[in-house]
Amino acid sequence: MRGTRQVTLFAALAICGAWVPAFGQEFQGSPYRDPQGRFSFVIPLGWTASPLGDSVETKHGDSVITILVSEGRQEPRALLLSLGGQIARQWRDFRDTETVNVTTLAGQPAVSGVFAGVNPKGVDSLLNIMTTTNGARSFALIMSVPTSQSLMGMGAFLGVELSFTIGNGPGAPIANSPAPANRPAPVAAAGAPLDRAVPPGFVLTRDSQGTGRLLVGSFSGNMRSATVTAQGMLGSLRGYFDDVPAIATAARNDRDTQVQALFSAKMQGIPVVGIIGIEIKGGNGDVVLIYDRAGSLRDSYLRLRGKPVPPLQSTGLADGSTIGIPQGWRVVASVKGAVDVGGPNGEMISLGIALPVYSQAPPVLNIPGMPANSLLTGPCCDPVRAMMAITPQISAVAEKNGGESIQLVRVLDSKPTESPVNGGQAAFIFADLNIGGRPSQQFSWVMAAPTGYGQWVYYSSSVTAPAAVFTSQVPTLLAIWNSYSTNPGVFAERMDNAIKSMNQATASVLSAARESSRVREAASERWDQVIRGVDTIQNTRTGRTYQVDNAAARDLVNGLNASGNGNWKVLTLDELVPKR
Q1: How far apart are CA 234 and CA 245, in angstroms?
Q2: Pick from 393, 420, 418, 421: which is nearest to 407 by CA?
Q3: What is the rounded distance in angstroms from the CA atom of residue 323 to the CA atom of residue 481?
Q4: Other CB atoms closer than 10 Å to residue 269's CB: what's the count?
Q5: Rounded distance between C-alpha atoms, residue 478 and residue 312, angstroms
Q6: How far lies 145's CA from each of 29, 100, 163, in Å?
Q7: DSSP code per residue over 116-143
Q8: 136 φ/ψ angles, rounded to the nearest 5 degrees
Q9: What is the mean pLDDT for each group of 10 consecutive residues in the chain (580 residues)?
Q10: In 83, 190, 270, 550, which residue has its Cα 20 to 30 A from 579's Cα atom?
């Protein structure tokens, strides 16, 4: 590809003209004033508002933003938890995705929370609740949006939030809340982590050695310009950062399907800098943000960016099969057709585990060498039901043998797939576990197949890691799994197809973590010199390059050229970013 060219996103937007208005610096739409003068806000373009007693409901397709008002003061956190509890009773698989976050709304202290689940219509959705009080009344903003449309929903909710004002009653003027950019943000203490509730649709990875952060997400729709999408993404993060991050410099390809930009912002009053990378394919795409304190990004950048998958070293197993494992990993156990591999952060990969199971508890069997009560029982052959039945029994056996307890907390998602055994059923399953008291996550392939005479086989392969590192380790975990030589080539394809067809929340952890590796690479190591404050100068005659302080690079090149010591130039950003 010939073409990366250096641009500023602001200039590109001025040229493009038309783009999604919900992400603009100023929110566009129709003003709405409560008939009783208690509040006002701007209705997003394309949305409709309908008063409902003491509330107003704003809708666009399956997305709904509701504003509730109640007389008297209610503590915002208690109100948020109360509303979340009421909605939880109406939704399935309801869960909080982030802890309650302290913020502001209409100039008043507020709290917000993000939840996920399946709404009463059966749609996998995200729920954002924000609550505040001015003492006389209490207010709640509630947004429900299908997960697949979370990007646009965030923009609309942001616009309602930023335009929301509180009045004093009938006939009273609506007081304008101060612009978010002018609100004094609480300043984080020196060295404190830069943590806020993770925006819907993103997955956060923390730098274990510093305060840097990595946000990974995916989006769907009809996106055509990576430049416009990047500006929209940064605009939607106003509130996560103190204000809309400002672009310093950027590079994109000629088709505008990839863009990487260096940005600056503040978070809790602390200056931060970062890189955003966007890649679009067929209207859908992936986004990666790496950011840290202005003076620390040069150190955390390479750790967070890293290589999505470290080099795998082929390791021979006792049965003649092979598996690829990175440095620092080890083969824990291996028998014919099965292997356990352990990682340095508590990761565990168990492949090819086959267990005999009885549909009903059989009469007591006296089998030499078999411990009493060690027979597994459970229903065949739904994989999810089988997993729920077998996991606590495996845990009991493990604990008796001095191992850790294993608790299946919840099944987050499952996708049926073809079973290689006639009469059997198989599925890929994504689940939350608790292993030895540690919150963990697991992605597994489970098959249950009858073998006759009231027996069946429970066969599983799984990758598991502590919840804090699971997302960042997904590319490595799945690469090791797919390197196992006993896996037929078609298995990896089925795995990818299953991941892609799982719900958006699962995809943001599994698919986005894998597919965004290309985007993460696009925020390439060449950007580290921008972060470190150096420039690369090149002798165009010999091709040799040197890195020098960016404050002296231009003068040095001019001096070298004037002295006749070769043809020198400062390489531009588009020459440093890999052509892709």
Answers
A1: 6
A2: 393
A3: 8
A4: 11
A5: 12
A6: 19, 19, 19
A7: EEE-TTS-EEEEEEEEEE-SSEEEEEEE
A8: -80, -35
A9: 28 26 42 88 84 85 90 89 88 72 77 84 86 91 78 64 73 36 45 72 76 80 79 87 82 76 86 85 80 80 69 89 92 89 93 90 54 75 94 90 91 90 92 93 94 90 90 85 82 77 68 51 53 67 66 67 71 52
A10: 550
**pTM (two decimals):** 0.49
> Do the domains 313-501 and 4-10+200-305 match in fold?
yes
Q: Cβ(241)–Cβ(267) under 8 Å?
A: yes
Reply yes or no on domain 313-501 having CATH 1.10.357.
no
Q: Which CATH number is 34-182 given?
A: 3.40.1000.10
Amino acid identity at 304: L
Q: Which pair of tokens denotes residue 573?
A: 């950003």
Task: Look up residue 412 and give its two tokens.
Answer: 């987050």
Whole-angstrom CA distances from 236 to 24, 292, 404, 426, 459 are 9, 19, 43, 40, 44
Strands of the sheet containing 213-219, edge to edge, are: 4-7, 246-253, 258-267, 270-281, 284-293, 213-219, 202-206
Is it true that the peptide bond before 380 is cis, omega within 30 degrees of 0? Answer: no
Q: 317 with 349: CB under 8 angstroms?
A: no
**What is the C-alpha separation between 4 and 524, in angstroms, rounded?**
14
The residue to which tokens 């850790």 are assigned = 404
Cα–chain center distance at 245: 19
Domain boundaries, the chain: 4-10+200-305, 34-182, 313-501, 533-576
Pairing of strands 376-377, 348-358: parallel
